[in-house]
Amino acid sequence: MPPPAAPKSGDALFASVERVNAELFTLTYGAIVRQLLTDLEEVEEVNKQLDQMGYNIGTRLVDEFLAKSNVSRCADFKETADVIAKLGFKMFLGVTATVTNWDAEGTSCSFVLEDNPLVDFVELPDTCQGLQYCNVLSGVIRGALEMVSMKTEVTWVRDMLRGDDAYEMRVKLTKQVPEEYPYKDDD
Amino acid sequence: MASAAIYSLFIINKSGGLIYYKDYGSAGRTDTNDSLRLASLWHSMHAISQQLSPTPGCAGIDLLQADNFDLHCFQSLTGTKFFAVCETGAQNIEVLLKVIYELYTDFVLKNPFYEMEMPIRCELFDLNLAQVIQKDRVALLGR
Amino acid sequence: MIGVGKAKQYANVLDKPLSRGRQEVSLSAFAFLFSEMVQYNQTQVDNIAELERRLEDAGYAVGARVLELLCHREKGNKREIRLLHILGFIHSTVWKVLFGKGADSLEKGTEHEDEYMISEKELLVNRFISIPKDMGAFNCGAFVAGIVRGVLENAGFPAVVTAHFVPIEGQQRPRTTILIKFAEEVPDAYMFFSPVVH
């Protein structure tokens, strides 16, 4: 049996996938947010729906990431976070994230994005000040990690649309389901 | 690319439910009920093999060799299993299964009308899978 | 307003004229987002016609913004005024920016003077999508039809735009045709007929 292919670098990975103009992506996302604002009216509800949509995407997208990046099982949450930051963001969005602000237990950290293709051309109007415009991204992380047995909570702590100097989301590992024989008699 | 005769292909979801089955000439030996039962049995055997393994971190059976067929299994980290029943000594089936996994991420998971964990009914997946298997056959004839 | 809607933003876009093509995302990122948009909209409708209308509306918002962006970027803020020019602009420029290539063809309808068709062997948004049998002739290209309508209407050419699968002989997969039917109020002066780009 041939040895498994080595994981690719972020740049090589992004270069190897088919790409589209980011504007198609950005404007389509804008159209989705617009639809939600019309349908749901309450900004809080829109935030929830964006997170849910991100979660749904994450549960599907994780397989593509695993299939095309050749990464193998990560040893721990730290390694997982690094893989997401260096390969995950790059493969799909063409940007890298920095992992920072680890807590002492190694169960929560921050992803910091300086470039964020979701928000080109976006300015939040006064009526939407509570809108978490990028909630889809945090949802994707949560959904994708849940598919590889890591339950997380993901929240935004800095948002340039709200005047901060970067995009920062906090990822907290709440539960890691062990990868063992998962079927008990009462299942 | 792989070059071998493949008798049948199964995809089972993380709970052991059969979500895709394709027969490539096992001469009608299995009907729908058989394939469902086989999928579920394989799911359990695969899990048991992880438990039986004397070394920790075993991911389950990759290859089962019998007198007249080989069974190759690839399990994604998300728990979906792709397995193929092939002629004995078939080469590079693990590569073929990886290609099928990629087709699944394209033509199944990106299809808004596919519901997760449910049986796969996606015309584009069938078409692209048929092409991959066809290439496989051509490679075999040219051997 | 969210999206391209403010003069200030245009100034920013103009400040970086090379932004076109500078940034790319993976096709997969778009495909997953588009798929999720279709799934969300399915939860909001009772029938396929409504789903089509909602996807078209979403596309319309994209089309309106693309027109603004491109007019500033490519045309020095001159909007195309003649009908054939705007169609050519959609067929080549808009398509290239959004989908990375010009559309396969732009043809004039043979039965009606005021109908045009943009056809694509494989529409980008349909790349990974198989329509279930029970959804009949539904085409997610409704989103693209909406984009076309958004461009046309905001350039002063109201039209009804729809997406259709058209079988091609010898091919397993049908192509998608975006059918453009101009509203009657388009002044005749704008309709001059000369060979259409193919």
From TrEMBL, chain A:
Task: Show the InterPro entries listed in the entry.
Answer: Bet3, TRAPP_component
Q: Which UniProt keywords apply?
A: ER-Golgi transport, Golgi apparatus, Transport
Q: Subcellular localization, per the record? A: Golgi apparatus, cis-Golgi network
One GO CC term on file? TRAPP complex
> What GO biological process term is on the record, naming one?
Golgi vesicle transport
Coiled-coil-forming residues are none
Keyword match Cell inner membrane:
no
Q: Does the keyword Ribosomal protein apply?
A: no
Q: How does it assemble?
A: Homodimer.
Instruction: Describe the task this protein carries out.
Output: May play a role in vesicular transport from endoplasmic reticulum to Golgi.
Sequence similarity: Belongs to the TRAPP small subunits family. BET3 subfamily.
Q: What protein name is recorded for this chain?
A: Trafficking protein particle complex subunit
The organism is Zizania palustris
From TrEMBL, chain B:
Kindly list the GO CC terms recorded for this protein.
endoplasmic reticulum; Golgi apparatus; TRAPP complex
Is the keyword Cell inner membrane assigned to this protein? no
Per UniProt, subcellular location reads as: Endoplasmic reticulum; Golgi apparatus, cis-Golgi network
User: Would you kindly state one Gene Ontology biological process term found in this protein's UniProt entry?
Assistant: endoplasmic reticulum to Golgi vesicle-mediated transport
Any idea which UniProt keywords this protein has? Endoplasmic reticulum, ER-Golgi transport, Golgi apparatus, Transport
Record keywords: Endoplasmic reticulum included? yes
Pfam families named in the record: Sybindin
Q: What family does this chain come from, according to its entry?
A: Belongs to the TRAPP small subunits family.
| Record's subunit section | Part of the multisubunit transport protein particle (TRAPP) complex.
Q: Can you name this protein?
A: Trafficking protein particle complex subunit
Species in which this protein is naturally found? Zizania palustris (Northern wild rice)
TrEMBL record, chain C:
Q: Where in the cell is it found?
A: Endoplasmic reticulum; Golgi apparatus, cis-Golgi network
* Primary localization class, coarse: endoplasmic reticulum
Per the record, its GO cellular-component terms are: endoplasmic reticulum; TRAPPI protein complex; TRAPPII protein complex; TRAPPIII protein complex
Q: Which Pfam families match?
A: TRAPP
Instruction: List the keywords (alphabetical).
Output: Endoplasmic reticulum, ER-Golgi transport, Golgi apparatus, Transport
Q: Which CDD domains match?
A: TRAPPC5_Trs31
GO BP, one annotated term:
endoplasmic reticulum to Golgi vesicle-mediated transport
Question: Family, per the entry?
Answer: Belongs to the TRAPP small subunits family. BET3 subfamily.
Quaternary structure and partners: Part of the multisubunit TRAPP (transport protein particle) complex.
According to UniProt, the name of this protein is: Trafficking protein particle complex subunit
Look up and give the organism this protein is from: Zizania palustris (Northern wild rice)
Q: What is the lineage of its organism?
A: Eukaryota, Viridiplantae, Streptophyta, Embryophyta, Tracheophyta
